[in-house]
Amino acid sequence: MNSDGNNKPEPIDPDVALRMLDLELMRQRAARQQGGAPYRGLRAASFIFLLAIVLGALLVFYYVFYARGLDEFRPHNAPASSPTTAPVSAPP
After folding, report:
1. Greatest CA separation found in the chain?
2. What does R_g of the chain's alpha carbons equal in angstroms?
3. Rounded mean pLDDT of 25-46?
């Protein structure tokens, strides 16, 4: 403490300054670790959602291209009529 009363700042002891800096850094580190905890669950949920979207897209890709999923939507090849004239039977 300054006992002279002339309001001049005391010279800073390097050991005290180093100890204060170390305490401040430890406080900031603890605050940063506690502050990130609420977002950890949200981050995990977003990764799970992204994984579900990718797996769903892979399943759709497999169904459409490899399992012939589009066959039910394609027109079936119906027998074409021949351009030749068919014999017409006489009415009775």
Report:
1. 139
2. 41
3. 82
The pLDDT assigned to 83 comes to: 65
Contact criterion met (CB below 8 Å) for 60 and 67 = no
Quick one: DSSP state of residue 3? -
Sign of CA dihedral 6, 8, 9, 10: negative
Residue 22's CB: how many other CB atoms inside 10 A?
10
Q: Find all residues with CB under 8 Å of 63, minimum gap 6, and list them.
A: 69
Structure tokens at 63: 């169904």
Q: What are the structural domain ranges in the chain?
A: 14-65
Secondary structure, 3-state, 46-86: HHHHHHHHHHHHHHHHHHHHCCCCCCCCCCCCCCCCCCCCC
- Is the pTM higher than 0.70? The answer reads no
